[in-house]
Amino acid sequence: MELRDAILRRSTTNGYFLPDPVSLEHQHRLMEAASRAPSHFNSQPWRFALITDPDVRTAVSRIAGRTMESLMAGGKFFTRYRRYFRFSQRELDERRDGIYIDHLPGPLKPFVKHVFSETGQKVVNTLGVPKSLGRDNEKMVGESPLLLAAMLTREEYVDGELSGLYSLLGLGMAIENIWLTTVDLGMGIQFISTPMEFPEAWRELEGLLRVPDDLRLVAMYRLGYLPPEKRRPSIDWSSAHRKRLSQYVFRDRCDNPERDPEER
Ligand SMILES: Cc1cc2nc3c(=O)[nH]c(=O)nc-3n(C[C@H](O)[C@H](O)[C@H](O)COP(=O)(O)O)c2cc1C
Description:
By secondary structure, this protein is α+β, with helices and mostly antiparallel strands. Helix content is 42%, strand content 18%. It contains ten helices and nine strands. It has helices at residues 3-9, 24-35, 54-74, 76-80, 89-95, 118-126, 129-142, 162-184, 199-208, 245-248, and strands at residues 46-51, 85-86, 99-103, 146-153, 187-191, 215-225, 236-238, 250-251, 253-257. The strands form three sheets. It has a four-stranded antiparallel sheet with strand order 1-4-6-5. The chain has a three-stranded mixed sheet with strand order 2-3-7. Helix 2 runs antiparallel to helix 8 (162-184), helix 3 (54-74) packs antiparallel against helix 7 (129-142) and helix 3 runs antiparallel to helix 9. The structure holds flavin mononucleotide. Flavin mononucleotide (FMN) is lined by residues 11-12, 14, 99, 190-191, 193, 239. Residues 11-12, 14, 99, 190-191, 193, 239 line the site of flavin mononucleotide (FMN).
């Protein structure tokens, strides 16, 4: 596969995977890709856990479902992350970032804009949105044949020290290598971030995965092979749009935006 093709096709999988196990060869291809990432002084501060055991996956899925429900019901999610939500094609075309909820059951459509108000949140809760999202998430994580835990060594990942920043950069690049490799292998991948919103849930995950004291769990993912037809969950968003060159690139100095190709 051409590199550019893989980069342009890379995306987050919001929907279901095929139930087929991910072959050991492919699991190791993903890990090989991770290991080729750059790291400060070649320290390779990343560690990964490949999780295929059904009991462990079920336990992770329960934590994911529970935290998704609490996050959506609690009201903090929408206030904390409001700035990332887009509500119209026009807004999307201008900003070209954020996420656009473009797929949801009919009865919920009138409420999506109001979810950021206290009364809107109450309506959303009354309609059972948090429960339904929690259930969907538990099912999607539980049915994913492969879960991946990304960790850093605490020796390198030290808050406030440059090595902490360097390790995060390295891990980010390792994860991107994994992500690009999923495209090549016909696989999909999605962050499991809701447990991270609750420190006690994150600690519970670390306990479940027996993360030793010298490692820190940084991120969790679910992976699997993609079905031929994309299956969207009941509430879904799109985020394929990207900023124009002039919106994120400067030439020489930061007061000089790069010109978009069509302007030249
Ligand atoms: C630090 C970080 C956390 C993220 N958390 C989530 C998440 O909890 N759930 C999710 O579906 N995607 C998550 N994403 C993926 C982004 O939503 C996604 O990359 C972005 O919307 C662009 O979409 P794309 O990956 O399909 O191009 C996260 C990405 C990053 C870098």
